[in-house]
Amino acid sequence: MLSTKRGRGKSLELERKDAASNLYTAENCVLACYFCNNHKSDIISEEDHCQYFAPQIRVYLEAKYRELLDK
To answer: How are the residues of the chain apportioned to helix, strand and coil, as percentages rounded to the nearest 5?
Structure first.
């Protein structure tokens, strides 16, 4: 199973698209996997995260899930 020592990663988490606004509203929140939620920060914008980081995180997670299925 993909999870952290503290148990995060087993389910989707609430992620603020604009973390700088600090608002948890329907317009500013989405569900995200632990890795994306943890990775995106006040420094990396939603657009930059989607363009530069999310595709590689997806490749990584798909490979890990395939490994789990093969066990």
So the answer is: 50, 10, 40
Residue 33: partners with Cβ closer than 8 Å, 6 or more residues away: 9, 12, 13, 57, 61
For 35, other C-beta atoms within 10 Å of its C-beta total 19
> What pTM value is reported for the model?
0.59
Instruction: Compute the half-sphere exposure of residue 60: CA atoms within 13 Å on the CB side of its CA.
Output: 9
User: What is the average pLDDT across 31-58?
Assistant: 83
| Nearest alpha-carbon partner for 34 in 61, 3, 62, 9 | 9
